[in-house]
Amino acid sequence: MTEFVITPPPIASIPVVRGGAFPVRRVYCIGRNYAAHAIEMGHDPDRDPPFFFQKNPNNLDATGIFPYPAQSSDVHHEVELLVALKSGGTNITVEDALDHVWGYAPALDMTQRDLQGLAKKMGRPWEIGKAFEHSAPVGPLQPVADTGHLDSGKIELLVNGEVRQTGDMNQMIWKVPEMISYLSENFELAPGDVIMSGTPSGVGPVARGDTMVVTIEGLADLTVKVV
């Protein structure tokens, strides 16, 4: 048994409906996976090869609280479906990909848009805009046995009761099985990996005091307070 020279950090995890927790190994996020969102961000929505960035496992936050970061003055909401994997491997076929899914959860990819924009302009990585503390509010995971595989249905975000983002999961450019297959060609996927599957159009800023409600058909709602 390995003897660590410092106390190991806690394992990042997502709570599960009816109890228990799902341990998180890696967090993969796909960019511009809804055509309307790609357009609103100034990009062509054609089906080019997908691209991914990563958040840190401990960016996932199930407290229902989002602390507004002091470093930014333009933090945006991005509602997403989170996909949790129970197994992995390399070169997974599209046909076999869903066999690796444990469950689904509602989530938000909070983005320091001003800092992300500056990083893009300077040709630098996005982590400062995407992988900051508490940047991935998440609701409880629900197992596939309860939900089935979510390939269609409304995905929506309300801020203070007003609809800000709305779409249908069938509008994803790259579907969940394709994302899993593509990632497995470039990384060795493993149990505990999660994928944030992109956001529909309507992204925009939040302010301290706002209440965000994520609604994804087939899942329990996620409510997050900005403080």
From TrEMBL:
Keyword Nucleotide-binding on entry: no
Protein's UniProt keywords contain RNA-binding: no
Any single Pfam family the record assigns to this protein: FAA_hydrolase
Domain of life assignment: Bacteria
GO MF entry, a single one: acetylpyruvate hydrolase activity
Domain Fumarylacetoacetase-like C-terminal: 27-227
Alphabetized InterPro entries for the sequence: Fumarylacetoacetase-like_C, Fumarylacetoacetase_C_sf
Sequence intervals crossing the membrane: none
Name this polypeptide is given: Fumarylpyruvate hydrolase
Keywords attached to this entry: Hydrolase, Metal-binding, Pyruvate
